[in-house]
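Tokens as discussed.
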């Protein structure tokens, strides 16, 4: 009775398994087929990191315009309206008013004063402005390289996760195949048991094995879903979008292992070079504080005064309007700043020396990454070839063991061990492929050729 219940549960599990395959096929019919190239292209167009890098390049254009404005004329209009409730009294000699020997208190100014005008200032010589213009251009180049580096980082993350999704799907396919094969063996054992040719314990052990395989399958489905979600996140794709990864994307195509690439062509190193240039301009901008500055200024104004609000008033109301203008040449020569400028120059020099050390360390790091990637590639190829032979051998052992078991020449334990070894061999082969692909990405990255993955 217990065996019958177990068989019924197993049939129900088998039904759910087959149904899930049909549902999966139905979903795939609506899913988006995604090659690695498609995934990278989508990420470069939709991932927030890539979009923000493009915005920084766009913003650098406006930063250049901001610096350039300091070299252009500065024009401003001004106006004011003042009411003086109490006028200041000034002590004046009475001689001015025909009263010698006396002092008179007389108000100066009017109750109302209004004025308006326009002013212009133009830098003629300011070394800091000229240095700033050069630095602004370098800043734009810095953001362009930073955009390139950001896109390479996006490509690397997408490629790594893409292959990890593929591996999870391959492992799930292995488990699905193992489930189908084990179900066939269980059916044969059941037939033998019904005819009194097999033991009940053998049938029960196969039933337990099927349950374990199904449990492992559910775990892989969950892991695959999590990995797909991670891939979609790094692509900037809505999480609910179903995707299909073609098997042809996971081929071993050995990379050419040439001499180490030039470090100077790597985005990481180019970015440090631009940072060094910016620090040099920053130092020059500070040194510009030692230079004199020369500018020209001019203004033209109208002034109205009277006992009433000057706006719209006339001389008959006691309000008089007059105009005045000025033109000036302004020279500023720094003489002593308390050694503040010298201290800033020395700080800037320390920053330059620090970035040089970063460049040396980055070069070593990039060389290390290249050598490690080459070593991993070679080891992965050896492992792949070994595991490929191991898969072939494990399948032969399984076939022979099944045949011996059906003929009563091998115990069930040997059959179960052969099945487990076959699954393990296939998973090891798939893992070796993943290790190779991840190493391949690192090798391509170390050669500065990640963009080729999107071509």
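Sequence:
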């Amino acid at each position: 009775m217990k065996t019958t219940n177990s068989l019924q549960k197993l049939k129900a599990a088998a039904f759910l398994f087959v149904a899930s395959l049909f549902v999966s096929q139905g979903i795939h019919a609506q899913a988006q087929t995604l090659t690695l190239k498609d995934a990278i292209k989508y990420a470069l167009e939709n991932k927030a990191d890539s979009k923000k890098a493009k915005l920084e390049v766009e913003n650098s254009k406006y930063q250049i315009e901001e610096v350039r404005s300091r070299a252009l004329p500065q024009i401003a209009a001004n106006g004011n309206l003042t009411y003086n409730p109490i006028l200041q009294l000034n002590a004046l000699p009475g001689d001015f008013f025909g009263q010698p020997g006396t002092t008179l208190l007389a108000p100066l100014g009017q109750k109302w004063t209004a004025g308006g005008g326009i002013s212009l200032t133009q830098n003629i010589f300011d070394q800091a402005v000229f240095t700033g213009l050069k630095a602004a251009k370098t800043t734009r180049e810095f953001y362009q390289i930073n955009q390139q580096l950001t896109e390479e980082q996006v490509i690397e993350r997408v490629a790594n996760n893409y292959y990890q999704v593929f591996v999870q799907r391959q492992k799930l396919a292995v488990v699905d195949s193992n489930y189908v094969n084990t179900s066939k063996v269980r059916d044969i054992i059941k037939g033998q048991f019904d005819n009194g040719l097999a033991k009940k314990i053998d049938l029960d052990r196969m039933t337990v094995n099927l349950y374990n395989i199904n449990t492992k399958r559910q775990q892989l489905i969950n892991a695959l879903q999590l990995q797909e979600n991670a891939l979609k996140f790094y692509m900037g794709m809505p999480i609910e979008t179903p995707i299909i990864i073609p098997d042809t994307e996971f081929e071993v195509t050995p990379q050419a292992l040439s001499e180490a690439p030039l470090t100077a062509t790597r985005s990481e190193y180019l970015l440090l070079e631009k940072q060094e240039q910016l620090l040099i301009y920053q130092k020059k901008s500070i040194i510009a504080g030692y230079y004199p500055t020369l500018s020209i200024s001019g203004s033209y104004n109208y002034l109205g005064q009277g006992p009433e609000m000057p706006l719209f008033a006339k001389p008959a109301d006691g309000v008089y309007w007059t105009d005045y203008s000025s033109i000036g040449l302004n020279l500023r020569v720094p003489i002593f700043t308390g050694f503040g400028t010298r201290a800033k120059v020395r700080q800037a020099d320390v920053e330059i020396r620090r970035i040089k050390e970063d460049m040396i360390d980055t070069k070593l790091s990039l060389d290390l990454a290249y050598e490690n990637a080459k070593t991993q590639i070679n080891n992965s190829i050896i492992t792949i070839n070994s595991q490929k032979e191991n898969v072939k051998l494990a399948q032969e052992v399984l076939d022979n063991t099944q045949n011996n078991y059906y003929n009563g020449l091998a115990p069930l334990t040997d059959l179960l061990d052969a099945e487990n070894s076959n699954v393990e061999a296939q998973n090891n082969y798939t893992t070796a492929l993943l290790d190779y692909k991840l190493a391949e990405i690192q090798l391509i990255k170390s050669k500065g050729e990640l963009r080729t993955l999107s071509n």
